[in-house]
Design a protein that fits this description.
Length: 314
């Protein structure tokens, strides 16, 4: 990995990495608050990365909407914003290295073929484990479609600062997983690992929906010779029916939120959701004041592990 843009060694580096597929929502606001507070509490930097890699899902205008929302709420980030859509060369180089080392292979299976051959979903994730059909070479008559990384038979174990000790057997959960998709796009798992390494990220704080992505990312870090950052996966915000609809919970000026007068309250609600006990602030307190409290006082030991509703303010 390149190291020219790395901050001074020893500086903690956190990041927030929204996907501009819609406006910021309550769940991503919680990830923004948690990652910001943990990075700043550690005296570190907080970087912003726009995960606009999955171009078919990117919604025009949303990257700017997210940035404006963060600004109005009082966030400020360190350094330049990294945009994944401009980093294909770095992902390509990582893929080439993995291919040359024999960790990655071309796969000619279609979705339909995989669904037919795959074992039943494991661990309630609803994901099919790829039965590694092309691992030892493309079967006759198949053309390369995607590229997959070979997963080990042994589980990958890590310590999460919120969720504790975690262990995943990738062979059971997903099998050899895709690092470059059949449509030519680089997979999220590869892009995140390359970006976190190139940006010198030392702490990854994000929603627990990405917990099972973490062992995939740790595997890629090991294969590419990158350091593994510290991980903290935050509880998910649930709605009345279990899962929260992103649209109903948009946090955006465009969605009619009064983020100027009520942004502070929203941030306080996010902090309480994360188990913190902020003091009372005067009504209409600016978001930046609430964030300054979080930067000085956030305690990761208080973050709950269970997902729950967030009693929202409008
Ligand atoms: N872009 C991902 C999302 O918005 C987050 C990725 C990450 O934090 O690693 O869900």
């Amino acid at each position: 990995m390149t190291s020219s843009s790395h901050p001074r060694p020893g500086t903690p580096v956190g990041r927030f990495a929204p996907s501009p597929t819609g406006p910021l929502h309550i769940g991503s606001l919680v990830a923004a608050v948690g990652s910001y507070a943990m990075a700043k509490r550690a005296g570190g930097l907080w970087l912003l990365r726009m995960e606009d890699l999955d171009t078919p899902r990117v919604v025009p205008g949303m990257a700017d909407d997210i940035l404006r929302t963060l600004e109005v709420l009082g966030f400020s980030w360190d350094g330049e914003i990294v945009r994944q859509s401009r980093r294909s060369a770095a992902y390509e180089a990582a893929l080439e290295r993995l291919l040359a080392a024999g960790h990655v292979y071309p796969c000619g299976c279609s979705r339909v073929e995989i669904a037919r051959a795959a074992t039943a979903p494991h661990d309630g994730e609803g994901e099919l484990a790829y039965p590694n059909i092309c691992r030892d070479g493309l079967p006759p008559g198949k053309e390369p479609r995607s590229y997959r990384v070979k997963v080990p038979a042994e589980p990958i174990t890590f310590h999460d600062l919120v969720m504790g000790e975690k262990s995943y057997n990738l062979a059971r959960i997903c099998g050899d997983f895709v690092v470059r998709r059949a449509d030519g796009l680089f997979a999220y798992q590869l892009a995140v690992v390359v970006d976190d390494a190139d940006q010198g990220v030392t702490q990854v704080v994000r929603g627990a929906d990405l917990l099972s992505s973490t062992p995939r990312q740790i595997l890629l870090q090991r294969l590419l010779g990158c350091d593994t950052p510290a991980y903290a996966h935050l509880p998910l915000v649930t709605g009345p029916g279990g899962k929260l609809s992103k649209r109903d919970n948009a946090v955006s000026l465009a969605a009619g939120r009064d983020l100027v007068a009520r942004g502070g309250e929203l941030l306080l609600a996010a902090l309480r959701f994360l188990g913190q006990e902020p003091p009372s602030f005067p009504a209409g307190a600016p978001g930046a004041e609430v964030l300054a409290w979080a930067a000085a006082s956030f305690d990761v030991a208080k973050v709950p592990t269970q997902s729950s509703p967030l009693y929202d303010v409008r």
